[in-house]
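haha ok so turns out i had the wrong file open the whole time. this is the CORRECT one, sorry everyone. sequence first:
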Amino acid sequence: MGGLAAFAGPLVVFLASLDPDVGFWDTAEMNTVPYILGLAHPTGFPAEILTGWLFSHALPFGAVALRLSLLNALEMAGASLLAYLFVQRETRNNPLALLAAFGFTLTPVVWQHAIHTDVMSLTVLLVAATLLLARQWWRNAQARHLYAAALTGGLAAGTHGAALLYMLAPAIVVTRRFFDQRLKRSCLAALLIFAGTAAAVYAYLPLRSAYVVAHALDPTARLGLPPGRPFWDWGDPRSPSGFIDVISGRDIGTGGAASGYLRPTLIPHDLAYGARALRVGMGPALAFIVAALCVAALFEDARLAIFLLAPTAFVTPFIANFAVESDPQRYYILPIWGLWIAAAIGAFGLLGRLARLDPEHRLRTAGVLCIVGALVLWQLLSHRAIFADRSDRLGASYIAALLARTPSDAIIIAPWDYATPIAYAAYVESKTGARILVPGEADAMRARIPGWLAARPVYGVSERAPALPAQYVCNFNVIPGSARDPKLYRIDGRQPGSPGMMPNRPRLCPTFARSSAKITRRYAKSPSASSPGRSTSRSFSS
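then structure:
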């Protein structure tokens, strides 16, 4: 019953606040790419794409965005169940195991990312399974647990590059035992399983890219643009160099982020960054309580506590120096999973000191149950605003406004953040007619636009007026009152003031401002760049 509660309870919370809308940014990309079997931004996330394709096509009802949000919720609820199983096997204390499961579930950054499509959810589920299985092998040396850990670890590596950092602790455990002659063969077999699984998953990228190009599935090819565009064929990984660029993410700054491990002078900065990220992701009070219990876990079982705290230590130098990431808190979801397990084990050690006063464990059990209940109630009340995301329709409203203001044969140029929901409308829902979406910035396309204008009208979505001759059409009111609110412009070859130019009068597209709370929260976390997510204009300008 405890395991059922550890899965069903979180799932109910996630379903009650589930985001049904397409969204913006990476959310909209991952609502689009899996359904069409496309290629996502680096590091490619092939396991997420294949899982999303299977689930979204196997579940034949509801909007595709809703189906993929549901898959995301199931994955995060599964991670909560694994937290329960980990603690239950270590302590044989069901109330403490439930504390870890519900504590993880209701941590703000976890809850917020569990209710809409995010590639990190499958990563967390698979890495959590790997850590649990590796711990089982650590305790009993049964090869089947090691092989299963290698399989889930290979799939995790095929989901997100950060998984390799999260799994360094089990890799160290396996490496230490490799020198035991009795275990050497099983360790080698596990290495082959891990490498073979990851390679098989990543083979999707060049194979699918070659198919997309051969069959001209990307509509931008009709405009003379080269292969390698977002959604259908990001980075063109058919060639070895393109494949390495995608899986390494070197074009988006991962090399600079990796330098954080090589510069000891950055350690104070990285430690401060990690502490701040956890405080933001968990909330100050919760972060303090969990940190205190993790210290207690170090006294209870130092090796196990280090194993659970290692993902936090290994990922922090990378994400602290990964300048282009606009949502760094999501990299701490898996570390928070480990922190909650360590906290439960620390609480178990503290309660064990009451054994002489409570030989029948009744006081301890009742106390833990009260703590779990109080935690659930406190977190639900403190973060009840997250439930409002179930009524979010900002992405759909933005799409409707764009379609109402552009002709059916238009070419629409939009930067990454605002291109993703248009791609969903075009490739998943087939709502855009003969319009062609070109991800990027209009100014970066200036050499191609005159030729396009000869056949089609061209529109640009941008936060600022393009340098090209263009007529302002409307604001989308995505971020009301902000200079960063996206605007629609009609690109024109004529100079401003020429006969027939549209009047440059302010007006608003019919986008619902009341739905903008979630996107405003997301943008508030972004750096001071021109757009809150990854900019395609950097890589896909021509």
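Confidence is low (pLDDT under 50) at residues 495-507, 511-542.
again sry for the mixup
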